[in-house]
Amino acid sequence: MAKQDSTARFDAPPHVSESLIPAVGYLRRSSDKQEQSLPDQKREIIKYAKANGYRVLRWYQDDAISGDDTLRRHGFLEMHAAACGSREFEAILVWDIDRFGRFHSMEAGYWVHPLMKAGVRLVSVTEGPVNWDDFTGRVVYSLKQEGKYQFLIDLSRNSTRGHITTAQQGYLCGQAAPYGYDRMLVDESGAPQQRVRNGEKVAKPKSWKVTLVPADDSEKVRTLQWLFEEYAEQDIGLRSLADAINEQGIPAPRGGVWQAGTIRQILRNETYLGTFIYAKRRMGKYNRVVAGDVRAREDFAQVKVKVNAEADQIRVPNAHAALIKHETWEKVQEKLLARTMRSTPRRERNADLYLLSGLVHCGHCQQKMYGTSKSKVRGDKSYRWAKYICSTYQKAGRSQGCFYHTVDQDALLAIVLKKLRQQVFGEGHRDELRRRIVKRLAARVTVEPELIGSCESRLKELESELDRATDRMLRSPEDLVDILAPKVSRMRQERDGVAKRLAEMKGRLRPVDAEAEADCALNRLWCLEQEIEGAEPARLRELIRRIVGRVDLYFDHVPRGKRIECPLSRGVIELRQDPIFFGPVNRDDRI
Ligand SMILES: [Zn+2]
Question: 405 alpha carbon to ligand 1 midpoint, in Å?
């Protein structure tokens, strides 16, 4: 049992005697190193089984998983299903009751009751068989379980309480240092003792604390300050900032290239003002922090991580050295806010605003182009229009090899509609399209009547089988229903499949008037064309989607001094069935 998955099962050697009580062994260890190791637990269980007349059929295990995290205990779940689904074994052997799980009594009932019904007992090496069948046994088991569960909650509450006290003094309680800082161990008097870099683990005396100091890698401090100042003073966005810093070859905080999102996070982090913040988000399972107090957490089941209200966070100004001046910080926040408002239009309007979203792709990187809105103020009027931008560039700037590929929606829409008019609806192409439709219809395979006959009789067979099975299921005892239900649903699926095939074949049996159908298809297309003229945006969006499957755009790269301009050069419109091409954009189409 050296290196294993966190969950696995093993089969026992087959030399065991038949007269013994069939059982399975269950091993569990949480990540707590104080607990008994899995091989130790196994050894104890084997000893106990020999002495008490059990035959261990196989083993289930969960490694490094807490006893209250039942749904992640795959070994446990597999064992539970086996215990309830087969009559293979009558006992589950564990080292102590804790191994089986740390449930509160209501949840314990959920797992225990099916085992009782299946006649499977829980037996621990330390306390022998658990007696779920009599009243005293059940009460004792429940009390023990509640005790273990409470123990976990108490542990969590105590450590949260300890963290709060530490945080209120402005010291770290387990966090990593943000970019530009190192952690520093300080003694009781606050005197620095030892610098700790991220990822490094050191043991410290209990009375020592951890605070932040400027990183001894001065390039990081300089880069951080440069980011704030550049963003505050220059007319530059986060993406261009990422480009600029990547060009200098400076590695991102976690290695690799800088992305706009990383920089945004840094620019918003108040730690750089010297303020220490704790409990910004609630993440714990049992407790949360409310204005320096521990409260039980009720919303964990709905949402695991949630931002705490500012009043509930713990903020300690001047807890460590600031790296950024207050004025710079204020300027940066103002600009971030202004830019966010400009670049994220309200969601409910998006459907009307971006008629081609999801269809438009950047031909260079094959990724989608995102809709985004631009605005300009001229005189006392403000203008706002939609455009599409290569998502690769949007996320990572030039670091991922794509350029500032953008196109205004109005211009693109005009091109797409014009091309559709010419290539799909246009008179000359109409005949070509008609010819293709006729050809496709004629190519349909004819169907053998015998095949339909055999399909029909199979369908009848399936239907009567299904009737019988449903009937049986309705009359069986509850515990059999679980076994029968999947079988019945499989039969139902097969029945539906055969019925569908039959309908298809019958459809093809009808004589096809290819000419008439082609006329009909062309007519539908003509109606579509009429409707597209003057359709409301939402409707237009839907109509375009009926015809167009994808649009790929290609851009020229024209150096203009230090910048590279990227005008649209050509594109490919893929229809939902046949691709048509539009060549270099005409002069008057240029954007
Ligand atoms: Zn691209």
Answer: 7
pLDDT tier, 13 (very low <50, low <70, confident <90, very high otherwise)? very low
Considering only CA atoms, give the Rg of the chain.
34
- pTM equals 0.44
Residue 10 confidence class, pLDDT cut points 50, 70, 90: very low
What's the 76 CA to ligand 1 centre distance in angstroms? 47
Distance of CA 391 from the midpoint of ligand 1 (Å) = 7
Tell how far the Cα of 373 is from the centroid of ligand 1, in angstroms: 18
* Cα distance between residue 459 and residue 502, in whole Å: 9
* Beta-sheet strand order (sheet of 369-378): 369-378, 381-390, 406-408
Q: In a 10 Å sphere around its CB, with 0-12 CB exposed, 13-18 middle and 19+ buried, how is residue 353 labelled? A: buried
pLDDT at 581 > cutoff 60: no
Confidence at 18, pLDDT banded by 50, 70, 90: low
CA of 581 to the centre of ligand 1 (A): 20
pLDDT at 69: 80
Rounded CA-CA distance 100/68 in Å is 10
Distance 362 CA to ligand 1 centre (A): 5
Which residue intervals of 377-475 are DSSP H helices?
391-396, 409-419, 427-442, 449-475
> In the prediction, which pLDDT does 267 show?
94
Q: How far is the CA of 390 from the centre of ligand 1 (A)?
A: 5
